[in-house]
């Protein structure tokens, strides 16, 4: 997107909205001080933001020693954001407002081994159903989509995965996911890799530090990196591939990448389930022998919690591998917070405790003294919040708001499609 002038009135409106939304300045005097704009100009910009429905008087007043000034607040209920997370065993569609409050959240089982366009159409149909349920007669303000494959954020196209998955699981390299959903849903669309989405969700927390890592555990293990408040994607869109960090060079466990000893070979769902089936075949786990086939990751975690030695060993080895991988990341990147979430293993107290002990043993004290090691929400709320935050931040950015605000609504699909490689970036 082309840069815009700070003197553009709509750019100034965007800055006023940002300051009010984040609570950095909420009265006319505070906004004038923060923006260096005159009082009359501030009054005009607040009025423009109010006409768009983005701000309103809070009903409170605040004084800095003189006459009390009216306090303004952001109106998160003004717009609706659709999100879709496409995983390995189905997808999730949610509807939020501009404050990332979840209004609808649906999980849909779906076999991701067919035509990707069929999957796109099924997701779009679910989005239509959500909009109809909430009686929205107009399109959503924007759509955020998370894929289980690397994504070129600038073009909104999928990127070839680092390693191969099961047949049909991965999106076709170069598929124009953004363009397809923009045309189908008649709304601006942004697409991102799931671990990055989760990292944005963690970064949206009120107490989030500027530097954090989110480790998202699913079929594989991925991570998203937020540095100085901004998502770090890397030169080839594959930053955060923690899954292929070597944690046991002398191991005989083969990773999907073809090497041995990768984190993925110890802590991923596929690896743990493969080891569990091997233990079951060898008669080494009475707990797993009582579970209905096929044995899943959830069974392994339940067995570990029930005291089954084989299941406990699998969980402990996964946690030790995760701690080793994180030790290198924490030493090199020095994040203030690391969040681990995504599946049942990440929620396990045994796993969490062992990761913490291993990380502390493998890292210099200076790197972990102030480190916050936290665990994601069981319902993967970070995914939905992250996708909503990604879209909302773009919609309210100075460059984007300056384009849509004169029309009063952030929708002009013909313009979006004509400029999609630049206008949506």
From TrEMBL:
Transferase is among the record's keywords: yes
Gene Ontology terms, MF aspect: kinase activity
Taxonomic superkingdom: Bacteria
Record flagged with keyword Transcription: no
SUPFAM superfamilies listed in its UniProt record: Actin-like ATPase domain
Alphabetical UniProt keywords: Kinase, Transferase
Homology family: Belongs to the ROK (NagC/XylR) family.
Official protein name in the record: Putative NBD/HSP70 family sugar kinase
Organism, as annotated: Cellulomonas hominis
